[in-house]
């Protein structure tokens, strides 16, 4: 099985694929509390953001391939797996864009619970 075949069929690629999924799960479980308690712009927050940038696409790529295996007919699995790979790459690139040219993934998510500055200023 070639490397590309292993990536496309990540859920059935053997023990290595399962280990990668396991490590991505550990990375997400470890980075989440670090992101929650870290201060804005800190090294811990930036580290968590970059862990997320790899772990989220890898974890979701393998899980979505399992969905393809379970629910798609064999004839449609190839195109569906290519679509999953494309979305995994787009997810990685999107998170990296937020991390490198924006506030970072952690601050972006935290912003969902903040009042907009104009509304907070008008309320005073």
UniProtKB/TrEMBL annotation:
UniProtKB keywords: Iron, Membrane, Metal-binding, Mitochondrion, Mitochondrion inner membrane, Transit peptide, Transmembrane, Transmembrane helix, Transport
Record's subcellular location: Mitochondrion inner membrane
Gene Ontology CC: one annotated term: mitochondrial inner membrane
Positions contributing to a ubiquinone binding: 71
Domain of life where this protein originates: Eukaryota
Membrane topology designation: Multi-pass membrane protein
Sites where the protein binds heme b: 59
Record flagged with keyword Transmembrane: yes
Single GO MF annotation: ubiquinone binding
Gene Ontology BP annotations: mitochondrial electron transport, succinate to ubiquinone; tricarboxylic acid cycle
Pfam families: CybS
Family named by the database record: Belongs to the CybS family.
Protein name: Succinate dehydrogenase [ubiquinone] cytochrome b small subunit
Taxonomic lineage from the root: Eukaryota, Viridiplantae, Chlorophyta, core chlorophytes, Chlorophyceae
């Amino acid at each position: 099985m070639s490397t590309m075949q292993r990536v496309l069929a990540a859920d059935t690629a053997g023990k290595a694929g399962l280990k990668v999924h396991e490590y991505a799960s550990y990375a997400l479980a470890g980075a989440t509390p670090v992101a929650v308690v870290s201060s804005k712009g800190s090294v811990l927050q930036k580290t968590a953001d970059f862990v997320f940038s790899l772990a989220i696409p890898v974890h979701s790529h393998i899980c979505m391939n399992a969905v393809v295996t379970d629910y798609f007919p064999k004839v449609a699995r190839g195109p569906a797996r290519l679509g999953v790979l494309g979305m995994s790459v787009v997810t990685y690139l999107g998170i990296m864009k937020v991390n490198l040219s924006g506030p970072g993934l952690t601050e972006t998510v935290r912003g969902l619970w903040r009042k907009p500055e104009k509304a907070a200023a008008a309320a005073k």
